[in-house]
Amino acid sequence: MVRQDQGDGQQRTPAEQPPDDLHETVEEVTAAVMTASRLFVALSARALAETEPALTLPQLRTLVVLHGEGPVKLAALAAGLDVNPSTAMRMVDKLEARGLVDRQMNPDNRREVIVGLEPHGRLLVEKVLAHRHQEIRAIVASLPGDRRAELVRGLRALTDAAGERTVDSLTERY
After folding, report:
1. Among 88, 100, 156, CA closest to 124
2. What is the pTM of this model?
3. Beta bridge partners of residue 132, listed in sequence order
């Protein structure tokens, strides 16, 4: 059986190792991330309410996906939103009625629908994202420099672990 030195001069087998606090640490980090998530949703809701109060957060999310991806097939939009195509189609119907998106038949395959942002939809997304960016920037600016550096490392580690693409803070494209 392999014994490991614990730095205190004592040799212990793996079964004799002191209990690991990893579970508590994971729970503490999870709670902090959940709290931050509520903050970000609140910031998005506030930015949306001040820019376009009649729009819902799911509608904004649809517009943001289209903003980041450009014109896409309805099936790709549904996948990007993690909803079924009929749900995506209902969302597109509502957004098209407001003049925010455009729907066209794919000229290469008439069974496919291509959805893209109208200029007003693009402008709306950019206004909401700019508003949210300003609020987040103000919060981050209130942190001491060393805490900002910790935050950047922690958030990058979190997004890397989740496989998320990096967002350029100047363009905030998804």
Report:
1. 100
2. 0.74
3. none
